User: Fold these one by one.
Assistant:
Number 1:
Amino acid sequence: MITLIAGMAHNRVIGIDNRLPWSLPADLQHFKAETMGKPILMGRKTYDSIGRPLPGRQNIVVSRDADLQLDGCDVVGSIEAALEMAGEAEEVMVMGGASFYEQLLPRAARMVLTMIDLEVEGDAWFPEWSAEEWLEVFREDHLADERNVHPYSFVRFERK
C-alpha cells in the first residue's frame, strides 16, 4: 500500500527554499510514529533538506544521478525502482517532494496529512485531490501551544 505523508498549510504549501515554512515539533513526532519501521520514499531534494537518513526506516532516495551514494540509503533512479526496492512491505510512506506526491497520488491508498492553520508563501505544493475519491477516517485537532505556535490537525484519508 502506498501512503502519502505530508504537512501542509491552508493553501497546500508544503515547502519553501527546500525547507518547511513552519516549526511544529508535534508534527515531527507524529511523522516519526507513522513512519517508524516502514520504507520511506523521497526525492533527492527532500533528502538534502533532512541531510541524513532517518533511523529505524528503510530510506529510499530517488535521484537522476546514477553515481549518487548516500550512507544509510538505497539510491535508485526512478519511482518504479523505489517501489521495487521496498519489496513486499505492507506500507510504503512517500514523504516528498511535490512531484513525487503528484506522481503517486493516483496510486496511493492513504494520505496521512498534518493540516496547519496557516497561510504561508511557498514554492512547493501538495497536489489537489478530489473529495469524491477520498474518505476522511480520522481527525485530531490541536490548538497552538508554547511549542507548536500554529493550530494544526492530524488527518487521515483513505481512498473510497
Number 2:
Amino acid sequence: MSKRVLLTTTSFQDTPGTHQDLLNSQDWEVIRARGPLSEAEMLDLSGDFDAFLCGDDSITQAVIDKSLPRLQIISKYGIGLDKINVDYATKKGLPVLFTPGVNHTTVAEHTFGLLLGITKDIQSNAVAVQNGEWVAGWKKPVGNEIMGKTIGILGLGRIGKEVAIRARAFGMSIIAFDPYFDDSFASENGVKRCSSMNEVLNNSDVVSLHCFLNDETEDMINAAKIAEMRDQVIVLNCARGELVNTKDMADALKSGKVGGYGADVLDAEPPAPGHVLIGAPNCIITSHIGSRTHESVQRQANRCLNNAINFFSGAEDVLCANGVL
C-alpha cells in the first residue's frame, strides 16, 4: 500500500534539486501544503497520513491524537523541535526524526550578512540609492568596522562554531557560553570560555544567539538583560524569535541602547501588520531564509527524505531525536 505523506516545508517545495528527484522516485501519495501551519490548519489536514515531512508547523498533542494510529513518523526538515510536542510523541511511541548537521554553514553566513548589513548600514543605504537620493552633496552614512570588536556567542553548537570560525577570520575577539562547552574547539579557534550568559552579555560588542528554544531560553534577551549589555550593542538572532522579548528589543532600539538588531526569525511568522520590529531603527529582519540556499535545502531535504525512506524500508540510517525506533 502506498504511503500517504504530508509535505509542508516551502523551501523544500520551492527549490529545485536532487531532493525533488528522490521524492518523485518514491511510490508515495504526497499532499502538499504551504507551512508553517497553525494548530488549527494541522488539525484540518491530519488524520489520514503515514508521515509528516514538516517544517515549523504546530504539531501539538491534539494534532498527534488526531493523526494516530495511522501516523508512523514525524520527519522534521531541520533541527528545531520546539513546534513539535516531542514529549507527547515519545509517550505515544511516535518517532520524531530530524536533520542535524546540514545547515550550519549557511546559517553562519547569514548571521554575518546581518552583522555587516547593520555595521555598514547597507540596507538603508541601498534603498536610498534606489530611490534616487545619491546626489551631489548627499550626506552619506558612516559605518563601523567589526575587526577588533568582541563577539559573544550564546550556544556553541554547530552553528555557533561556524560563526566563531568566521569571526576569527574577520579579526574579532570571541567569547562564548554553552552548558556543553567544547574546550578543544575553543582552544583551536581562539574562543574564550565564559562561565555564564551574563558574562557574555556584559563583555560583548556583538551578541549572537544560537540556542534552542525552551522554557529556560524563551525571552532570555529582555529589558533586564539588555540593561546589562554594552551601550550600542548589536544583537543577532538566527535561532528563534522567541529568544528575544520583542517589545523590549523595540524599546531598546528606539532609545539607542541597542545599536542594531539583525534577525532572521520573529516571535510570529509571518508578522502581523504593525509588528513593532518592522521598521524599527537600525533593525534588519529577513524572512527566515538563513538556511534557504540551494546547497543547504538539498542537504536538509535529502536527509529529511532519507530518514523517512529508511524508516519505512527498515534501514538503520535514521536520525531520531526522541529515541523511539
Number 3:
Amino acid sequence: MSLEKVREQVLRVVEKNLSETEEGVMLNIRIESDFDENYITIEGGELIFRTRESDENKYNATLIGFLSRELKIPSSKIDIVYGVRGGFKRLLIKDIDAEDLSRRLLKIIRLI
C-alpha cells in the first residue's frame, strides 16, 4: 500500500472522530493504559490514546497535557465534555477548526 493511501485512510479515521461546533472541534478518543510511553494510534476506526499512566485518576490530566504539548494548543483550550471517569472521552478543543486539528493530528498519530 502506498504512503498516500495510508495517509488517506488515517485521515478518514481522524475525520470520523471529529465534529465541528461553534466553539471549536469535538474529538472522540479512547484511553488504554499500561504502555511504555504516551502516544495516539488508530485501532478499529477509533483514535486511541495509549498511556504509560496506570492511575485512572490521572488519565485526564495526562491526555490533556499530551494533546496540549503535541498539538501546540494551550491546555486551557481543551475540555473533557463526556467521559470524565470512563475510558471513552469526548473533548472540546476550542478556537480551532476541524481541518487544522486534522492536520495536526496526522503529524502525531503513530501507526506502529
Number 4:
Amino acid sequence: MNDRKQHVIKMAHQLFIERGFQNTSIQDILEYSGISKGTFYNYFSSKNELLIALFREIFKKINKERNELLIGQDRSNIDLFIKQLDLQLNTNNKNKLFTLFEEVLVSNDAELKQFMKEGQLKMLHWVFQRFLEIFGEEKKPYLLDCAIMFMGILHHNMKYYQMDHDLNTGVHEVVHYSVSRIKNIVEELAETGEQLNKPELLESLIPELRKSEPAFQEELSQVIGLLKKNVNGHKDQAKYAELLDFVRDEFLHGKDPRKFLIESTLFTLKKDHIHFEEDQLEKLERLVSRFFTERDGIEIK
C-alpha cells in the first residue's frame, strides 16, 4: 500500500474516532487529508471500502503481533493465549474499534455487515485452533462449543466491565477471568461428553477451510516433488523426504492442517536450506503462508 493511501486511511480513522463513521462525510475526509475527490476514488470506491481497508490494516497488524508471541514458545501454555488476547483487545481499544464495530452492526450496509461476519468467523476459528493446541486433540469434539461460548463470555464481560471500570487498565483482568471460566467448562464437557456443535461445522461456515481446490493441491505436490529431488542421494534423504511428505499429507489428507506442526517442520527445513534450491523452498513457504492467511489471517514466518 502506497504512503499516500496509508495517509488517507490514517486521517479518516482519526475522523471516525472524533465524529463517528456515520457522521463523517467523504468531503470531511478530503479536507482533513488534503486530497482531491479524484484521488480518493482512485483508492476507494466508497467510504465503506475505506473503513474495510482500515479494519484490514489493523487486523493484519494484530495477526502479525499475535503470531510473533508464539515464536519459540510452548503453544499449549494458556498464559500465552491470555497474552495474545491482551494484545488484541488493547489494540482494539487503542484504535476505538469497539465503537466502530457497534456503528457497523446498527447500520443497514450489507457489505460492511458481511465483512464483520467473516471477521467474527475467522476469530472463532482462531480461538478453536488455539484451544486445540492448549487442551489437546482428545478434547477436540467439545472445543468448537467452547470457542463459541468463550467469545460470548469475553464479549459480554468486556461490555459490562467497561461501564464501571477503566478499560485501558482492566483488559487483562477481564481476559484472565474469562479464560479461567472456559477452562472449567472444557473439563466439564470432556467429562460429561455433551456436544452441541461438531467441529466440522467450521468448514461449512468458512468455505476457505475446504482443501479440495485442485490448483492448490497440484501446486503443493509439484513443489514438494521438486524439493525431494534436491536431496536425492543425500545421506539424510529419508529424513527430508519424511518431513516434506508430512507437510503434503497435512494439507491433502488431514481434516484440519495443524499450523504449529507445519511451522515447526518448515523451520527444520529452513535450517538445512543449503540442500534445497532456495526459490523452491521459498515457494513452499509462500504456499503455506497463503493457505493460512486465507483461512484465518495468520501468516507463517
